[in-house]
Amino acid sequence: MNAVNPAFAGSHDHRSCISHALGAAERLCASQGLRLTAIRRRVLELIWRSHRPSGAYELLGQLSAEGHKPSPPTVYRALDFLVAHGLVHKVSSRNAYVGCMHAGQDHVAQIFICDGCSLAFEQADGALDRRIRRNARDLHFHIREQTVEIAGLCPDCAETGRDD
Ligand SMILES: [Zn+2]
Ligand SMILES: [Zn+2]
Ligand SMILES: [Zn+2]
Predict the structure, then answer these.
(1) pLDDT less than 70: residues of the chain
(2) CA of 95 to the centre of ligand 3 (A)
(3) Domain membership flag for residue 83
(4) Mind listing the pLDDT tens digit for each residue in 77-110?
(5) Ligand 2 centroid to 67 CA: how many Å?
(6) Nearest-CA neighbor of 111 among 53, 150, 159?
(7) Ligand 2 centroid to 6 CA: how many Å?
């Protein structure tokens, strides 16, 4: 599923992104005997409110505003679960989290993040992944985690010259 570019294609039916993501999460949890608890599900939904990475404290604030009042460790544990099972990606350069566009598929993500509007778009280029693994082998380097993050401007922001 690398065809369209929902994040950078301007307007799109984001509700279908959300229902696709939640459906993928439910299928993955069911097939692996994992529990998509209420808090895990809600955190995933909040992350999927947009294609902009969300910080843990932003999520905590949204949950509190809804009356959930979870503790920070509860939110971090939910995030750890979602990351561990490939439902969201951690965007280290932003210390934030974004929904995975290829949940349930074995892949390594490359995440393009706009400096102007913070939109993030994920690709899963297997050839790039294989090349990085080959290079790591040559270096006798053991990869623990591999997410390539690319900063720059999305088409809209590049056009309007917005980069602040
Ligand atoms: Zn969307
Ligand atoms: Zn992904
Ligand atoms: Zn942008």
Answers:
(1) 1-10, 162-164
(2) 18
(3) yes
(4) 999 999 999 999 999 999 999 999 998 888 999 9
(5) 30
(6) 150
(7) 14
